[in-house]
From TrEMBL:
Organism name: Steccherinum ochraceum
Family indicated by similarity: Belongs to the cytochrome P450 family.
Protein name as it appears in the record: Cytochrome P450-dit2
Binding site for heme: C441
SUPFAM superfamilies xrefs: Cytochrome P450 (SSF48264)
InterPro entries assigned: Cyt_P450 (IPR001128), Cyt_P450_E_grp-IV (IPR002403), Cyt_P450_sf (IPR036396), Cytochrome_P450_monoxygenase (IPR050121)
Lineage: Eukaryota, Fungi, Dikarya, Basidiomycota, Agaricomycotina
The protein's annotated pathway: Secondary metabolite biosynthesis
GO molecular function: heme binding; iron ion binding; monooxygenase activity; oxidoreductase activity, acting on paired donors, with incorporation or reduction of molecular oxygen
Names of the cofactor(s): heme
Amino acid sequence: MPSLVTWCCLAPLVYVGIRAVQKLFTPGPFENVPGPKPVSRLLGNLPQFFDQQGWEFQRDLSESYGRVVKLSMPFGAKWLFVFDPKALHEIVIKHQDVYEETPIFRTGNALILGQGLLATIGDHHRQQRKMLNPSFAPGHLKEIFPLMLDVIHKLHQALSEQIAQDAPKELDMLDWTTRTALEAIGQCGLGYSFDPLTEHAQNPCGEAFKALEPTIFPMHVMRILLPYIVKIGSAQFRRRLLEWTPYPRLQRVREIVDTMDATAKEILRVKRAALERGDEELGRTVGQGKDILSTLHVQDKLREEITKMHAQLSQDGLDLTYDVLLGLPYLDAVCKETLRLFPAVPFIGRRTQEPITMRLSEPMTGVNGDAIDSIFIPVQSTVIIGIAASNTDRAIWGDDAHEWKPERWMSADSCKTDSSGTKVPGVYNNMMTFLGGGRTCIGYKFAEMEMKAILYTLLPSFRFDPPADKEICWNLAGILYPTVGKTSKKVEMPLKITLIRP
Ligand code: HEM
């Protein structure tokens, strides 16, 4: 006789199975939208779309069908993969409330991160944005810039201590930059230090953040069931169920979330205690591409621009400011081009809250050969925003769209449109990297400042090369991550670092 736990696990599966059979025998609304053939009748294109090394499939989606592509998913579902600029404008700006975050995304984020910006929708989300926006406004970023530089100088110090003159050393730069990013947001956003950034310090929270994405990304089926599973019994009961489930990956997720939760609670405890003490300090303190640096001529050119600015500032007796950093043209071009070609979040899903017609900027050819200039989308449809596909759309970026060329940003007409003249609705330089509209990445200016400050601080002292005997591979996931080789499970990016100037 199956136990209660077994029945609880089977119930959502049975429900989804019945829905799937119904869907398989009902003609879908996207019949005329072209798309790749499913690899399996049961799973559709899911194994290809969520393949960690599925770069070719992703590129095929963006080049072979049209700017809206039909994807077949498990249980008979059909998704639309979209990178048409007008349709993107409707999704992220004009009809943002119709195209909401998917229940899978929201439920997962609520369980892992709590009811924050990545888990809420509608007015609740708007209120949270309103509260948090001032912390990411340019004026505030200028204020916290010296704090950020202090953190990055600690990184510089840590690297300097490990790399002797004339003796290059291989270090895992992903580990160092992850630790730096966590410490930067801790110091600049929370007034809390996570990590002294010294060689041997352990940082469980940083490790947990780094492990999160590679651990949860392969759990597709479980993630699809998540919105149903969270409706079973009480939170206490579900926690027990979780603890009893003999699935090592799920147990790892539990450990990661428990570590992040304990850290968040510790920060709150420290801040509350400081508030109760009326701590004045609190008022003042509360308040992250591919290994492109291996492209040596670019690295040298960038180093030259930065070294000149270092020399000029020290001659004038001035400190580096936010405005000076953001005004460096080649540094800006390198960062923009990297964020265009290697967006950390390559695609993101939305679910329609009501039926809607999506209009396209230019007609595309349907399966029956007719021109399509709009697509009817029923309620509860999944739409994937093709961030990387839009950033490499040849109609906008030209035939060299897939090449990394910082120089493209040095000309006056760098923000291009397609022949219809429709602009991509991205908040950042005609790209979708940080999205646009009401769910724009709140930290995009912070991320830009951090990237530039790290390059500005490290490049005059160090040269970075890929290790001769290791292939660094980028893995597709909700957030891209690097490994050595395609099959490794270890998230890392070893680079050979040479000290140029102490
Ligand atoms: C290169 C670095 C980064 C990239 C490419 C990036 C990209 C994105 C994207 C595409 C979204 C939209 C997600 C969605 O709509 O579902 C997003 C949202 C968000 N990002 Fe970032 N992000 C970066 C760095 C940061 C940093 C440094 C912070 C914080 C300091 C941050 C905080 C957030 C938050 C809180 C949201 C949720 C916003 C909302 O839903 O209102 N991000 N990010």
